Protein 1
Amino acid sequence: MIIPDPNTPVTHLLAYKGNRSLYLMANDTVVRSYNFGLGFQPVGHKQFEGDGKTPEGIYTMDRRNPRSAYHLSVGISYPNLADREYAKQYNRSPGGDIFIHGTPQRFVGAGDWTVGCMAVTNAEVEEIYRLVPLGARIHIFS
């Protein structure tokens, strides 16, 4: 069930990469749901800068960018300590700057085109930007 009240507090987010579904949750209830595009290499957990993958695991929504090149964006706390340690073993950078963001007109309908972010429509990112509090956890599943 999707709650129609636009002011329902979001407690956490669930993202399923396999079916490109993002859910804003209020405890056990879906507040909003969206489809999204992924990085240009959508299968697997992000490991290194430039690999085109979207992270998997539990992260935190940790920043907002009102001047995003992708309309608006809300930051995901990738890389965490485990991500940094893994990349360090290979003497590589884990990358960073992973966001939920909007979609420029030139990418509308392009499928998986980001470098590791989750792309929704510009109207949807406006809603996400407004509803998702900083500090909310996001669980990203394969």
Protein 2
Amino acid sequence: MKASSKKTSKTNECISENTVTPEIDGISIDCVIFGFKKESLEVLLVQHAGGESEGSWGLLGGWLKREESADDAAQRILYELTSLDNIYLEQLKAFTNPKRVLDRRVVTIGYYTLVNQEDYDVKASLAVREAKWCRINEIPNLIFDHNEILEFSLMQLRNRVRQAPIGFNLLPEKFTLLQLMHLYEEILGIELDKSNFRRKILHMKLLVALDEKQQDVSHRAAKLFKFDPEIYKKLTEKGFNFEF
């Protein structure tokens, strides 16, 4: 997918080594962006437009600015590419291998986020030449230690979806139980029993059954659901045991 400029950013400032805003030398932010499409878990990769990684594929990243917290920097970097504000974002850890970048010492703070691919169009910037979604089982060799960061984020995601319903951020507003089950199968890398999954998810009272069915499908149209925002908020804060 070519980077698109359909949406307008609230800032024209791009992530680059030449930005006029003071940056903290040697500290960067790298973001793993998970998406879900046609029953497949995908990751957004970007082709870098400058610096030592010019022309290579990797994760979305940028430098930490002096006036920013790491969380603020991650939100800014994501906004500049996706135009999404206040999306779910979780810090992973600092990746500190002294050899992760060959010509100098760079420590990066990793984050991951879950987004619905239908919510935005990826935008070009001075830092990103092109962007594309890649299936989780078809990831190429990436720059620096980005494959390691991606693997660590996937492990964290698998742990988190068993404790909180964060996976719903990958789905459209209205979805079927089968779509939800396929999402969990993709994230966890396992095959689930359909009846057991249905019984367990409905028992949580997390979903609201809609008086609607799928449209424009060749098979029998399935009932649509959406999540209950109040229950979702409680379960996200308290945590839950979502073992199968």
Protein 3
Amino acid sequence: MAKKKKRTTGYTDDHAKAGLDTKFPDIETWQNQFAGYEILVDDPEFTSVCPKTGLPDFGVLTIRYSPRKTCLELKSLKEYLFVYRNLGIFQENIVNQVLNDVVKACDPVWAVVKGDFRPRGGISTIVEARYPRPDEK
């Protein structure tokens, strides 16, 4: 019986980790005055770059969260998101990195980051990450 040849994609561990060691600017916050509500931040023109091909990726990035003691300051959040514009990073990593940085900035009650990335080569991708993460309960 012939051995099945393992299919290679040309993607390396360096591609998989690309962008994750980037020094992102801090996301500033301001003192929350209320409890029990949710905030939705929508970036309808989110862009990044494929770490292998260098081609641009386009999508809609949304951040939904319930603030605890502080809220995200939108101008600094916009400046934070601009860093991705020329950054080679996988879409899955974008969503998870943004979630980590939102949680670090404002310690929300809960948060959901969703990336709805436009088709490239006929395939679109939707990635969603939630806090608290299942393994952090």
Protein 4
Amino acid sequence: MSMIGQLLYWITTGLLIPVVALLLVFLLRALALVGSSVATALERRRYGEQIDAVLKRKAPAEADFAALSLPKSAPLAGTIAELAALGGVPVHARRILSELEIHHDRSVSTARILSRTGPMLGLMGTLIPLGPALMGLAEGDLASLAENMLVAFATTVIGLLIGAIGFSVQQSRQRWAAQDMARAEFIASVAAEEKD
């Protein structure tokens, strides 16, 4: 093996431990994200019905948005309170809506990172052990070949699992963000009409 080939081999094999460590960290983060998303989904189901009842059953001018009892952890709670207190000032309403949008973008970013980076790390974890596995095959060391192939397959599966979790959570959170933005824009419109 040439000197450049040997150098590249050592660099790539040296990356295996950091890649596996990152995969494990990302897997823990993905599992935590699933837990927080389930809790958020249950919370949203409870207060979503309350908001929809106010938005759908009453005429917009009669809707009492300030009377909604939303949990403080709900991003829409502060937005509704601010919009109701504004009295329909359009410039401030746009600022409040932008802050809600920024909040939701932050909540989606972790899932987005996991959905893209997990499969990449899984692929790296697949390809890195193939070099030592092929060398083991060339030398007739089947134990080394089997060990390296096991690492290659395990990292692929973990990377794809991280990506699947990240993608699923990302889709859910984007849907929640769109729902919250639609509700907040409606409330801002109602507040603006009441001012006129």
